[in-house]
From TrEMBL, chain A:
The name this protein goes by in its record: Sugar ABC transporter permease
PROSITE patterns: ABC_TM1
Biological source species: Acrocarpospora macrocephala
Main location: membrane
Keyword Transport attached: yes
Family named by the database record: Belongs to the binding-protein-dependent transport system permease family.
Superkingdom classification of source: Bacteria
TrEMBL record, chain B:
Boundaries of every ABC transmembrane type-1 domain copy: 77-271
Origin: domain of life: Bacteria
InterPro entries recorded: MetI-like, MetI-like_sf
PANTHER family: ABC TRANSPORTER PERMEASE PROTEIN MG189-RELATED-RELATED (PTHR43744), LACTOSE TRANSPORT SYSTEM PERMEASE PROTEIN LACG (PTHR43744:SF3)
A single Gene Ontology CC term: plasma membrane
CDD domains noted in UniProt: TM_PBP2
Coiled coil: none
GO biological process terms on file: transmembrane transport
Organism: Acrocarpospora macrocephala
Membrane topology value: Multi-pass membrane protein
Homology family: Belongs to the binding-protein-dependent transport system permease family.
Protein name as catalogued: Sugar ABC transporter permease
Signal peptide segment: none
Length: 290, 286
């Protein structure tokens, strides 16, 4: 097949809609965000160049530092919890039986649910009084009612709980795909050699799942820092800023306090952090592979 | 002895093991589907008490859904369907066009285009939310204002790297010989595309269709930025405003939440196989 000039023209024509949409709604906003981060943005007075002032403002802002900490904690907790629970679920539900297929599909449901709706459900289940659903259940096993989202000490953990509930089944499904790929003759050989279940898990199953683990870890790292909807719906950063994350703070700066320049700077910082985190994870993965 | 699974649970027979497994799986079902089941029951119950979230149906009623109408819930639902309908149509057409070019044409700059696609996938929406709102209020060159329009919620989801890449991978696997045969028989490129390639890509269309649907349906930040007037709200962002209501308690909120949840759950249940395929291809291949 030679590349004809006509073929090339057709190719670009076919790609044009996608590229135009990406240009307008991804790349121009990205560039504009970077640009605006150097300005004091004033809707009617015109923008004023302030150099790195916005970055200085946001980096020295205690609320922002707190939000970064909360985002990191939430990301680490959600990722770790989902991976551990997902792996456990995958190991328990592995197998070709028909009823296991049903259990898998049912357990997977939280993943496909709309975040905003499911967060409302959890907000109601987390009701801090004795009558809240989760507190009722805790009551059965003789645990005092917990304040959950209403307390500064537990709001972030409560959000994490819902995130793990929604994230673990996703990880489970990917782990299951990895488990299917394991060479069954290895298991048989190990059985002949008299290996116990624990040995088999430790020396065959887990090492085989390592690539899957890293993929999930990378995805979670990228997603973790930019968490927004669940926090916005469950607590909106409260009580008293105890669950404020980077994105809820940026949202408030941009749309409620109209500090578009500072908010843009925050976006750029978040982007840089995501990029660095992704690179670090990739590097760790390379080193592990060696 | 054969071990088909890592833990070998399947191989364990006997009444004790059976009971153990049953309890285990039952617990999993309760934990992961319980909240959704509770929503289903509660939405059809009289729930004046704002804390009441019941798992046991007592008096079933449609009252919440009737009240929901007065709170414009069905308007929000309609908005959601308009956005997801046109958004998904646009997304799929854009993806199929781009994928055909990437899978079948060879041209200079192809690596660059692929890099662009990957870059958009690495660039989370949330990060560009603030400047995106500025762009939508005044589109560069065109100078159109898309705030408080459906287009403002549809166009930004029109191109999605995931869909394009999944479609491209699939089209590459359609044998070129089929096309050549059609061409020898005198079919033009357009006709070959519509009669040979597209029908063969039906499984991939299912994958990008169901993923695109859930992706657009789940949009939150975008409609939050675009729809200032409540008349343009989509159902997910309207939920917040339905929280407290003196007369009906949380009934309307529960009914609306159920309506917001159902479409993607139904899409998943109906297209399970496509969903699983997309899940593994998306996660494993990048």
């Amino acid at each position: 097949m030679t590349h004809s000039r006509r073929g090339t023209a057709v190719a670009w024509l076919l790609l044009a809609p996608a590229l135009l949409l990406f240009l307008y709604f991804k790349f121009i906003p990205m560039a504009l965000g970077l640009w605006k981060s150097f300005f004091k943005v004033q809707p009617f007075l015109g923008d004023e160049w302030v150099g790195l002032d916005n970055y200085r403002t946001i980096m020295t802002d205690e609320a922002f530092a707190g939000a970064v900490g909360h985002s990191l904690l939430l990301a680490v907790g959600t990722t770790g919890g989902s991976l551990a629970l997902g792996l456990g679920l995958a190991l328990l539900i592995e197998g070709p039986a028909r009823y296991l297929w049903f259990v898998r599909a049912a357990v997977f449901l939280p993943v496909v649910t709309t975040m905003a709706a499911v967060a409302e459900v959890w907000r109601i289940m987390y009701h801090p009084g004795d009558s809240g659903l989760l507190n009722t259940i805790l009551g059965w096993i003789a645990i005092d009612p917990q304040p959950f989202l209403a307390s500064e000490h537990s709001s972030l953990w409560s959000i994490m709980g819902m995130n793990v509930w929604r994230g673990a089944p996703y990880d489970m499904m990917i782990f299951l795909a990895g488990l299917v790929g394991i060479d069954r003759t290895l298991y048989e050989a190990a059985a002949v050699d008299g290996a116990t279940t624990r040995h088999r898990l430790r020396y065959i199953t887990l090492p085989a799942l390592r690539p899957v683990f890293w993929i999930l870890f990378t995805l979670a790292a990228i997603r973790g820092l930019r968490v927004f909807v669940e926090v916005y719906v469950l607590t909106n950063g409260g009580p008293n800023g105890s669950s404020e994350v980077i994105m809820t703070l940026i949202y408030k700066l941009g749309f409620q306090r109209n500090e578009l320049g500072v908010a843009s700077a925050g976006g750029v910082v978040l982007f840089a952090a995501t990029l660095v985190l992704t690179l670090v994870v990739q590097l760790m993965r390379r080193r592990q592979a060696r | 002895m054969r071990f088909d699974t890592a833990l070998g649970l399947e191989a364990r027979k006997g009444p004790l093991a059976s009971i153990g497994k049953f309890v285990l799986y039952a617990m999993m079902l309760v934990v992961f589907t319980g909240p959704l089941f509770g929503l289903l029951i509660s939405a059809f119950s009289t729930t004046l008490d704002p804390t009441a979230f019941t798992l046991w149906p007592s008096e079933l009623t449609l009252e919440n859904f009737a009240q929901a109408g007065e709170k414009n819930v069905y308007l929000y639902l309609l908005n959601s369907f308009v956005v997801v309908g046109f958004g998904l149509l646009l997304q799929m057409v854009v993806s199929v066009f781009a994928a055909y070019a990437l899978a079948r044409k060879r041209f200079r700059g192809m690596t660059f285009v692929l890099l662009v696609m990957l870059a958009t996938m690495m660039l989370p929406e949330e990060i560009i939310a603030i400047p995106l709102s500025l762009v939508l209020a005044d589109l560069p060159l065109i100078h159109a204002n898309l705030i408080d329009t459906y287009l403002g919620m549809i166009l930004p989801v029109g191109a999605w790297g995931f869909s394009i890449l999944v479609m491209t991978e699939f089209m590459k696997e359609v044998p070129v010989e089929l096309e050549e045969a059609a061409r020898i028989d005198g079919a033009g490129e357009l006709r070959t595309f519509f009669t040979i390639i597209l029908p063969l890509c039906r499984p991939a269309l299912g994958v990008i269709g169901v993923f695109g649907f859930t992706m657009i349906w789940d949009q939150y930040l975008l409609p939050l930025i675009v729809a200032n007037e409540s008349s343009h709200w989509t159902l997910p962002i309207a939920l917040r405003s339905l929280r407290s209501d003196e007369q009906v308690g949380i009934g309307v909120l529960l009914a609306a939440s159920l309506l917001a949840l159902l479409p993607s759950v139904i899409a998943f249940l109906a297209f399970q196989r496509q969903f699983m395929r997309g899940l593994t291809s998306g996660a494993i291949k990048g």
